[in-house]
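Hi support team,

I submitted a single chain yesterday and got back a structure, but I'm not sure I'm reading the token output correctly. Could someone confirm the output below corresponds to the sequence I sent? I've pasted both exactly as they appear in my results page.

Thanks,
R.
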Amino acid sequence: MIYNEMKINKPELYFFYLVVFINLFPFISYKFFPTMDGAAHLYNSNLITELLRGNPRLNSFYEFNHIPVPNWSGHFLLALFNTFLPAWMAEKILLVFYAISFPLVFRNLIKIYSPENTLLSYLIFPFIYSALFYLGFYNFYLGIIFLLITTVYWINNMATLTLKKGILLFCLITITYFCHLFSYVLLISILSLLLLQDYVRSIINNGTTKNVKSKFNRQLTFLVATSFFTVLMFIKYLLIIHISGDNQKLGTAELFKWISDVKPLIALNREEESPYTIKYFYLLLILTAIALYVKIQNIKQTTFAGRNSVRALFYTFHKSDVWIIVFGVALILFFKVPNGANAGMMSDRLCLLFFIFYIVWIATQPLPKWLGVVSAVSLLYFNLGLLSYHIKTTRDLSNDAVEYNSVAEHIDENSVVLPINYSTHWLQGHFSNYMGIDKPLIILENYEATLDWFPVKWKNNETVDRMRNHNSCDIGIDSKKENIDYIVIWGREQDTTDNCVKKFKEGLQEHYDLVYESPRKVAHLYKLKKRSSIVSDGNYNANGLPNN
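Hi R., thanks for writing in. Yes, this is the structure output for that exact sequence:
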């Protein structure tokens, strides 16, 4: 029997692996996989490496966050890989790990509840390249992966807990905490819910016996012990870290539109992607309707048979129906929590999590086998359609990232660089950070260092404050203080009569020389002129700084 099941399932398993491999193409086809925050993560990971090496120049501008904040995991992995690999390769390893582990761990979760429903695990593939992923929320996605891994581990081992398993559970929970705070809170909630479900089922099966209580107390003790350390860090984080947010709330009609469009899957262009995402939504509706019909029929059969006790009715529900509570809570929060709350984009995060937990429930329902085949074929069509568009778009953005990265070859190490961005592409807001992913540079556009929930922060000193907060109209040359070494203009300037822009251009021409122009003339690098051409007196050292 086991041999026959393996013989039947192996071709499908290999095909699943093939689809996983196909979904790696955007990552492996080009040098960079460009996301909005991806360059910033790579740059700050390089800063971590340089700070650990004791780079005195960078130490005068940056410092480590004194609080063990979440958002460390992705940066730590990138910094680790970057010690012996170029940054573009370090990022590839991280992204390939994500793209492989996400569908595989989802499939394992489905197999726990419904081993016969492996074809429905294909529902997850379109979510690999979601809107939040293109925004570069690497730590958030790592948090989701470890949330699912830890949940699978808890379900498989909660009945036979040992010290060794407790240590591994502690490690998984701690890793999830250091991936993302939101994922950690969800994980603790889900593990607690699964524990409560197991306790209720045990009571219905055996009554409130001494063994049932003893088992529950032991499992609860394990969960509390393995999460106690992270709970303390979580409390400390809430007490110390100030998260700026607002009450910006989207309208109910718009939020319903997000659901019907499956907005998390619209990553780059609504016109190109929505034809696939809307069809995906219809598929979910059909699967939901059939799953509810099957469930209602089971309840009716139980009632007609005269087995209308609480116990009999309870067993008409599938064990995976506990996920109704999970995606239900996510849906309620999606409509109630303002989009601007906490670190922002809460509606986007909750919408994504709702769909992930929702398809966990759908994929584990006792549905006909033929429906799984139809669903898998449909999903391959949706997945490949979206994927082909992403590959085409990634090519152009990757070329831009390579061009920006090449500017660093013409910049001296440990220089202060001011990027000016004229690009109209919404994903290129932090592309300037590509200059500092393999070379120690102080890039003044570093949004992570301004926030309290990332590993590296700006140092609080006069030089940093003056250079970072320079007047955008005035380059701010000061003959007695350190100045910006390089200015990079990215994108094509538009003709303007704005007096501020004119003043900036005048200062640029007066104090800086054009030293490099990228092949496509998208990037222009300007270097600070020698001190002797800026001021007529004073003694300066080889670096252009005033002598003491």
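A quick pointer for reading it: The radius of gyration is 27 Å. Let us know if anything else looks off.

Best,
Support desk
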